[in-house]
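Hey, I was hoping to borrow your eyes for a little while. For a while now I've been wondering how a particular protein folds. The fold is given in discrete form, as structure tokens running alongside the sequence. Could you read through the record and tell me how the tokens relate to the sequence? Take your time with it, there's no hurry, and the full record follows here:
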Amino acid sequence: MTIERLHFEKGVPLSSEGIDEIERIILENQDQIISLSEGEYNLTPQGWKKHPHLHRLTVLKDGTGVYRAIPREKNAGTISLSREGRGRFQMGVQTIRIPEDQSVAILAGPLEDRKTLGLYEIILYSSGENSQKKT
């Protein structure tokens, strides 16, 4: 049991394919997935200086994790999308326990052009059978 990370420094443009596109990106980039050791990780993309949230991941000793979107502004919120594409808006800190709440967390937001939606992080819970290198 481990938390794994697939990171895209500058983001990968996303179309409207939804979950099928995310699954394809994971398969195409399997060799870049790394297992994370116990500790705190800053997931906030460097280019997001004015983004309303800080993004953090805590990997626990038992191989589970806690993702947090922490508002920088008082009225900031996040939108969680279901597999069916339904959105739910939440004010304040968003916390996702991995794998208890969900086995995958995705960090997406604007690319440098501020017009295109991009994928920056995929955090996966793995049974450890296919784990890659550790960091």
